[in-house]
Amino acid sequence: MATILRFVSRARRTAQSSFAPSRCSIFTTARRLADPWPLPGSPEHLASTETPSDEARIQPLERPNESLGTLRARLVYQSRKRGTLESDLLLSTFARDNLKNMSEEELKQYDKLLDEPDWDIYYWATGKRTPPDRWANTALLEQLKVHARNEGKVVRRMPSL
């Protein structure tokens, strides 16, 4: 009986000393590898959301006979329902403040801007990435950058549809 007790206690000590540290080291090592949800604007997020230049883009639908009212309504909806909260807030408040004063040409340009990927628009507007040549010196993107800076420190909320 004493032999069995000595064997069990020795086995328990061996198991505790060899198992516990390796188990802890697995969890601490896994935590250090990478953040699964990097914050927008962080270098990790900027690198992971960059749109490849050779990516095949889906061509948007042509709408040759769309009325101005329908165009505005569609742009309001597309500004509000982007897919990322950051883009939704930025573009929907921009649309609420500016779409009613835009000309038809400016509305068509805004429509083309909305065909770009969400994170690209967000980072161009916030100045984290340089926009491509087709958007670099446009008045629309400059307006969006001013809106994104929010120099008046206005608390913004999603507008209703």
TrEMBL record:
InterPro entries per UniProt: SDH, SDH_sf, SDHAF2
Keyword Nucleotide-binding: no
Region (Disordered): 36-64
Superkingdom of origin organism: Eukaryota
One GO CC term on file: mitochondrial matrix
PANTHER family per record: PROTEIN EMI5 HOMOLOG, MITOCHONDRIAL, SUCCINATE DEHYDROGENASE ASSEMBLY FACTOR 2, MITOCHONDRIAL
Record protein name field: Succinate dehydrogenase assembly factor 2, mitochondrial
Species of the source: Lentinula guzmanii
Lineage: Eukaryota, Fungi, Dikarya, Basidiomycota, Agaricomycotina
